[in-house]
């Protein structure tokens, strides 16, 4: 079974899901004010590896999130072992594995700096990077049969279609800007991660001003995505490309609506958690668009002839 290509593909998919999952559980830690439930790192307290009665429920929540790292390690190690045995995508599998201890160390720095908002933001953005790596691994494996794992980025893309590729990359940059600004908004807002003491600080920016800047960036992103949708339709690119852009736009609109509602309802924890999931989905949808434009983007048209079949691309 280890030698079967599907095994590695499913492990790569599990890595994507697990990395999204740890973003959400990290959000639960912050939204339940459990960020310093375990006040030190790598142990939970100075005298105990695990939560004690003194740390109560908050310590259990924070420590449980730490333990999920080992789930990621198991999946990543399994992925790398299978990748080595199959001699496929070993470099990406290695990067996905090495990103986990890097994320753990950054998480430790976050705790030791008493939830410094810039460290928290970097912790989230590193998760986005790991999601990109694991999604890339999954995509390359999923498309290996038709595209080849070492295909160049613009294979099958004609001269006129390169405008769509360029605009998709601009959209991706806009998404990254929105994600980065989102961490700044979070660092200025009320969900500091531990409201039980006065040690946790905010980044000092005005939350209303940062929220407005974030909203402006989202509007620009949505406008760029609408432009991309119009372009891929006008160029008559294949249906999978058009569908990928449509889904990105739908998810962006839903995410924007959630952000609008949560702002005017004073950031209820449940909506903030949904918004974090939405951020992951926007990023995944963006990656889907980018990779949809890596493969041949036009559907071949087949003309039947009594003596020959001619494929016109």
Provide a concise account of the structure shown.
By secondary structure, this protein is mainly α. Helices cover 68% and strands 3% of the residues.
Question: In words, what does this structure look like?
Answer:
With 313 residues, the chain is mostly helical. The protein is 68% helix and 3% strand. It has 2 domains: 1-151, no CATH class; 153-313. Helix 1 (5-31) packs antiparallel against helix 2, helix 3 runs antiparallel to helix 4 and helix 6 (207-234) runs antiparallel to helix 7. The longest helix has 31 residues, at 56-86. The two termini are 38 Å apart.
| Rg over C-alpha atoms, rounded to the nearest angstrom | 22 Å
**Helix amount:** 55-70%
Structural category is mainly alpha
Total number of beta strands? 2
Order the strands across the largest sheet as they lie in space: 1-2
Mean of the pLDDT scores? 85
Present the secondary structure layout:
Blueprint: H1 5-31, H2 56-86, H3 90-112, H4 117-142, H5 162-188, H6 207-234, H7 239-264, H8 269-292, E1 301-304, E2 309-312
Antiparallel strand pairs: 1-2
């Amino acid at each position: 079974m280890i030698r079967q290509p599907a095994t590695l593909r499913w492990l790569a998919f599990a890595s994507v899901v697990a990395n999204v999952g740890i973003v959400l559980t990290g959000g639960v830690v912050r939204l339940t004010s459990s960020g310093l439930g375990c006040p030190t790192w790598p142990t939970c307290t100075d005298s105990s590896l695990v939560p004690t009665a003194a740390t109560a429920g908050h310590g259990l929540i924070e420590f449980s999130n730490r333990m999920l790292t080992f789930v990621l390690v198991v999946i990543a190690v399994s992925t790398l072992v299978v990748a080595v045995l199959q001699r496929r995508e070993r470099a990406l599998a290695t990067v996905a594995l090495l990103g986990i201890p890097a994320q753990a160390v950054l998480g430790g720095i976050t705790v030791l700096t008493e939830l410094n908002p810039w460290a928290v933001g970097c912790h989230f953005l590193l998760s986005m990077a790991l999601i990109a790596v694991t999604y890339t691994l999954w995509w390359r494996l999923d498309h290996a049969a038709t595209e080849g794992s070492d295909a160049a980025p613009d294979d099958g893309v004609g001269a006129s279609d390169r405008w769509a590729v360029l605009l998709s990359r601009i959209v991706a940059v806009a998404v990254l800007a929105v994600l980065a600004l989102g961490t700044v908004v979070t660092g200025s807002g009320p969900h500091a991660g531990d409201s039980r003491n006065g040690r946790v600080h905010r980044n000092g920016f005005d939350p209303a001003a940062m929220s407005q800047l974030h909203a402006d960036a989202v509007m620009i992103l949505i406008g760029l995505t609408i432009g991309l949708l119009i372009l891929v339709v006008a160029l008559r690119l294949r249906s999978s490309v058009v569908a990928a852009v449509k889904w990105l736009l739908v998810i962006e609109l839903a995410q924007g609506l959630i952000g609008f509602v949560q702002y005017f309802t004073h950031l209820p924890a449940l909506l903030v958690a949904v918004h974090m999931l939405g951020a992951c989905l926007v990023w995944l949808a963006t990656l889907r668009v980018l990779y949809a434009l890596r493969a041949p983007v036009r559907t071949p048209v087949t003309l039947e002839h009594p003596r020959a079949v001619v494929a016109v691309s």
